[in-house]
Amino acid sequence: MGFKILKYPVFLCFVVSSVFAGAWTRGKGSILLVPYCYFYQASGYYDTNWKFNLLQNSGYFDGLGFGLYFEYGFSDRFNLVGNFSFVRNRWIDNYNYKSNSDFGDFEIGLKLKIFESRFVLSFQTLAIIPAYSMDREPLIGYGEYAGEVKILFAGGLRPFSLNSYFNIELGYRRFYSKVAPQVRFQILYGINLGWKWQAIFQIDGVNSIGEGTFSTRFNPSIETDYNEGKLSVSLAHRFTYKAWFQGGVFYDVYGRKIGAGRGFFIALWIEI
């Protein structure tokens, strides 16, 4: 089976509620379900000079989320994609304790496979719909409608006779008003370790274009006019022919005007 043993590699880019499932598409009538859970925590931030600082007043933020990502194959080339989640955010400092639980952004879109041979090229559109109140803090998200377009490119490799694969994505996300537009990217590399195990290495980045007017006090993971890069390392194990378990850790390796934290995630992949 080669690199296609896990042909829909993923890292759920938590906190910003984006889900990346790779350039591959489901077959006609096929359904992919990915229930997942993550935990993120931050006690620092990257300032305007890309330097790490502790949050003021001994500040601490964490987020716990549960969600479901899905894909449905209208045809072998054309898929419906979506994601919804439920999130609990918490902020603690010397003077405040705030906790907020609500649904996250609902994401729905379409993915079209343009070309496939040894490599796969796809195009995806996505609508982001906020499903939470903006009256409670820490905020769950930006509270803004947004749209995204993305190019995805993936394929298999055999360096040193190892079955492996890559996935590269480049996207543009535009918000309705207060949040600056974003250029987003992903670079992923997965290796088949044998015995139904795979190792997955990934970096996800966000780069704002221009400035926005959005601001919040108690959630350092959502800002406007910022840069951020997250590195993740995970292991995936196939326990049935169409079911995988994935678990890993992630870390904010660089940033500007954004929180600096780390966390872990688990996900279950089920293809029907």
Set out the fold topology.
Layout: E1 11-13, E2 18-20, E3 31-46, E4 52-54, E5 60-73, E6 78-92, E7 97-103, E8 105-116, E9 119-130, E10 146-157, E11 164-175, E12 182-194, E13 197-208, E14 227-240, E15 243-256, E16 258-271
Antiparallel strand pairs: 1-2, 3-4, 3-5, 3-16, 5-6, 6-7, 6-8, 8-9, 9-10, 10-11, 11-12, 12-13, 13-14, 14-15, 15-16
Summarize the structure.
By secondary structure, the protein is mainly beta.
CATH superfamily: Autotransporter beta-domain
Number of DSSP-assigned strands: 16
Outline type: globular
Mean pLDDT score: 90
Q: How far is it from the N-terminal to the C-terminal residue, by CA?
A: 18 Å
Helical proportion?
under 10%
In DSSP terms (H or I, runs of 4 or more residues), the helix count works out at: 0
Give the CATH topology.
Lipocalin
Radius of gyration: 18 Å
Order of helices and strands: EEEEEEEEEEEEEEEE
Q: Outline the biggest β-sheet.
A: 12 strands, antiparallel, barrel
Residue windows where pLDDT falls under 50 for at least 5 positions: 1-20
CATH top-level class: Mainly Beta
Spatial sequence of strands, sheet with the most strands: 3-5-6-8-9-10-11-12-13-14-15-16
Strand coverage percent:
over 45%
Describe the structure.
With 272 residues, this protein is mainly β. It has a single domain (2-271), classed as Lipocalin. The chain has strands at 11-13, 18-20, 31-46, 52-54, 60-73, 78-92, 97-103, 105-116, 119-130, 146-157, 164-175, 182-194, 197-208, 227-240, 243-256, 258-271. A 12-stranded antiparallel barrel has the order 3-5-6-8-9-10-11-12-13-14-15-16. The protein starts with 10 loop residues before the first strand and ends with a strand. Mean pLDDT is 90; it is low at 1-20.
